[in-house]
Amino acid sequence: MKALATLLAAGSALNGATAHYFFPNLIVDGVTTEYFEYVREDTQGYMPYKNGYQSTDFRCNVGSEDFALQTKTCTVKAGATVGFATDFGAQIQHPGPLQANGSKIYEIGPSAFTSDGIEWGVTGLDQITFGIPDATPAGQYLLRIEHIGLHGASVYGGAEFYFNCAQLEILGDGTATPGPTVLFAGAYTGYEPGILFDMYSKRFVNYTMPGPAVWPAGISSNISADGAIHVPDDDSSWSFAAVTSITGFASSTSARIYPSSVPLSVTPTSSNIRSTGIPEPTESVNPEQKSSHAHLHGKHGHKSHCRAR
Ligand SMILES: *[C@@H]1O[C@H](CO)[C@@H](O)[C@H](O)[C@H]1NC(C)=O
Ligand SMILES: *[C@@H]1O[C@H](CO)[C@@H](O)[C@H](O)[C@H]1NC(C)=O
Ligand SMILES: *[C@@H]1O[C@H](CO)[C@@H](O)[C@H](O)[C@H]1NC(C)=O
Asked: What GO MF annotations does this protein's record show (predicted)?
């Protein structure tokens, strides 16, 4: 999180980077894996994707089911640090939040609310990493990352979505039940305050991250300016750090996350697919991969890594 804050400060100027990016590279414990090696490819190409809130294409991207078999599955231990890198170092430049999904395990929202608009924690980044919670139960997961571009989001369907899914096999002794969980399609209607959002029409001192709360920290998705309830009514310039609300904890400075966190969700592949009626749970993992790391399911091999590289 510290690194994010540093990069954020440096990232306000456009660096000539492409605005249209995607997330083809999974990062595992500091190692950036190959282009679409563990991330499902798709037929969309450059993003964004817009307005298909109820489409299964919203899960892992257009046509990505067809790439499930040829995508490797990365074996990691719960507690590992994972993440995504953009295509060829493209920097995230569109204003908006980022989150990783299933049960949301990570999110990056506003870093500051200012008289010039919201500053976003991911602006200028070309990779994002976060931990797989220790309590995550072992199993196969689709790890979905999502950045939402809000510059056109004042009209319904105008928010731009940039997202991909990596295939993970998580090892560990976790027995928790991640939640709340949501499913794509269906997680969003498009009318959420953080999705149908006119970033130009007025100034804001709060932002509601779309989707569920972050698991397992109990961080709510309501991010507000530290010390301001209303936008100051004078014309002076102002800036307030963003603070993520904490539910279930007494409010305290130690509960602050700066930049605010974004949820990441880990969704079991099979339940995700079943609930949307796509008959593919077992084929979603490369059978060769599956057998090649099957022996790791025992008490051995608890080192974080991807197999078959
Ligand atoms: C994202 O996570 C939510 C919450 O668990 C889940 O409902 C939704 O299906 C996930 N989205 C995708 C694309 O997996
Ligand atoms: C800000 O908070 C108000 C009051 O709860 C809410 O109505 C509004 O939707 C929030 N705005 C955003 C962008 O989340
Ligand atoms: C979000 O936080 C703001 C500021 O604390 C509060 O006024 C607002 O009611 C909250 N909105 C929701 C939806 O929790």
From this structure: cellulase activity; cellulose binding
